[in-house]
Amino acid sequence: MWGLQPFYIPWYWYPCLTVFGSFFERWPLNKLELGMPRLGLLHTGIILLLTLITELFLKQLGLDLFTTTTGPTFAAIWTTVGLGFVWQFNMWPFTELSQPTKGIVASVASLMISVLLYLLTVYLVGQENIIQRLYWWFNILWVQVFLMAPGLYDGISL
User: Fold this and answer.
1) Is 90 strand, coil or helix?
2) Which of 4, 43, 92, 120 is deepest in the core (most CB within 10 A)?
3) DSSP state letter for 86
């Protein structure tokens, strides 16, 4: 695919799903008495809404997630930071907060840290080399997934 003009469907819905789903502990959906497929469709709609809100917020900071380099790189960084909160730190220092405060504070904190790490990455390697750093961030992410996640976080029973 090198040399082709790529078209990315903005796939930062993945960090929205994993980060928001973990930080909010599926609140308030876990209190609803809905079965499938209604619960799944509602969850999908909420993730879509959160994705669009995140895009609008980040676009104000100059991060256009619809571009071929910014979107995937920022999504990899945000997923790494978000899963780090959940897996490595078990939601510390937010563990004592109740929902939705825990989800809001953890989401804002992870977004701020992710923006800073993205800007640091651009500063260190330059925008023209950012796609190569995307693979570096994915390597960190997969180390988290393979070494830290098993047994530390019960994401299935949320």
Assistant:
1) coil
2) 43
3) I
Tokens, residue 124:
């260190």
Convert the pLDDT of each residue in 4-57 to its tens digit. 555 455 566 677 777 777 888 878 887 888 888 888 888 888 887 887 788 788
Cβ-proximal residues to 102 (8 Å cutoff; 6+ apart), any chain: 23, 24, 25, 91, 94, 95
**C-alpha to C-alpha distance for 10 and 75, rounded to whole angstroms:** 9
pTM of the model: 0.75
Q: Encoding tokens for residue 117?
A: 């790490």
Nearest to 81 by CA among 25, 19, 12, 145: 19
* Residue 61 burial class via C-beta count within 10 angstroms: exposed 0-12, middle 13-18, buried 19 and up: exposed
Measure the CA angle with vertex 146, ends 6 and 55; round to 5°.
Answer: 40
CB 149 within 8 A of CB 87: yes
